[in-house]
Amino acid sequence: MPGIVDATGFRIRSKNYRIFAEKPLVRPANCIIEGTPKMKKVLPITLLSLGCAAFFPATVSALSMSPPPRTNSQPSKFVFKDASGKATSVDVVQSYQPTKIVRPFTTADRQLDPKLMRAATIAEERAHAHSRRQCWHAVKEALLASGVISSRPTTVYAKQAGQELVSNYGFRKLAVSDPYQAPIGSVLVYNASRAAGHVEIRTKDGFVSDFRSKTPSRRPLLGIFVKS
Known about the structure:
By secondary structure, this protein is of the alpha+beta class. It is built from four helices and eleven strands, in the order βββαββαααββββββ.
């Protein structure tokens, strides 16, 4: 009959109800059944091997299934509705473009009619994002609504605006040839050999007629006109 080793390391036998202790056979820290074979310490190593075998293939699979690089999905146009409810769009600036805005800000000339600044504000409020080929019509309406002029100009072509404003409405031509140096509210008139030309009003940060622009027209400048 196999004996049992207690926690103190003494083997206890039971025979005819007599209990006696023999010399300890194992270290006191162990409690085993005598006669059983010793188990090799292979279980932790086996579990570690299985864990590594299961872990590394999953890692390789996860790396191979990584998502593709993201593409630039930013829109190139910003679509919105203007004051009349019509859908329009403008370019979305995604990087610094120094040629887009050149000397954007100007100042007001206190010696000029303050109603010119009001005309620039009215034109901006009514302007569209893109040209509708009604520049002289829009400038006429802004000058009339602001009180700069008391009656509507009668000329048809935009390139005729400067001459009519000087002759009939008390405007004068400035000795300035750079549109960016034009004061706020001044009227810029451009020539065109086989077209109606162009006319626009200088704003604080750009130019406006029937549409808004950060840069002046590329047509030949006939003159910059103001009213005192």
